[in-house]
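Example record

The entry below shows one chain as it appears in the dataset: sequence first, then structure tokens.
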Amino acid sequence: MLKKRSSRLVQILQLCLLVGLSFSLMAASCGEDKKKDEDSANSAQAEQPKEDAKKDDAAAQGAAAKPGETIAEDAYPGFNLKVLDDAERGKFAAMARAELCPCPESTQSLHDCLRKEETQCEPARYAAVLIASGIKEKKSQTVILDEVAKYVESINKTHEFKLDNTPVKGNPEAKVKLVEFADFQCPHCRMVVPIMDEVSKKYGDKIAFYYKHFPLDGHPQAMVASQAAEAAHRQGKFWPMHSLIFENQESLSKAKLRGFAQELGLNMDKFNKDFDSPEVATYVTQQRGEGETAQINGTPSLFINGKVYMGEKSVEAISAEIDKALAGDEKK
């Protein structure tokens, strides 16, 4: 179920670097794409008649530029489209013109939105990455724009997560709830730990901060680390185990994880039983399933009151969004 999902997101990350896109969501995350989405896209490509694909290409070429006009490598501030050739840049511009900008309250096309730094936003930049990567993968315009539409739908949706028995800091009754999906072997998740610790201390009982598991296939010890953390959670020691695992991220063998449990003074008979139980493994898999339903592409992924957080992973930026959520709750 959880195999072979890393290739496409790796390609997107590489493309981000090639186009010179400085983008906090993607540049500071570990990730894998969902195989079912990849299979669906590939299937859609295979089923689409060749003549439709030709029409897509013709439409892209026609909409991309006026006679004599070319799309420059630096047509969009913050991007260096040298990874795309002239024809591919034409397709990019055509699709960007056909897509509405996903920035809040924007009425422009994605193309117009990207033309100026002051009108760009993180969702618009990621939509651009999806288009550019789709072009490089030689997907049809129909498939690419469908992927962009699914992404925009996911970031505008308010997601509901199962929070009963989920590890939490702060006040579970708080109106503002932060939910993080993370992977114990992801280096970016480890970098976010002190940031989220500071945020939790700053707001105390004004918020609830929940941790959910999203072990990635590319990290072979992430699943067992999540199982160990859940086994510790059943003895009220999730957060101490969480800290030990991230502090020793490079060495997470089962023996090492059992050693952490001993270090925390856990009942080892109970820990070992829970650690090796199918029930705990299923629970971790179900949590990852919640993330997949929410269209998570990488870790760490943060949600504030069910809305995906798209900003910089910093105390200041996250605090600004929390303050908005707190202010909004006070007005109700």
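Notes for this example: The two ends are 43 Å apart (CA to CA). Residues 7-156 form one domain.
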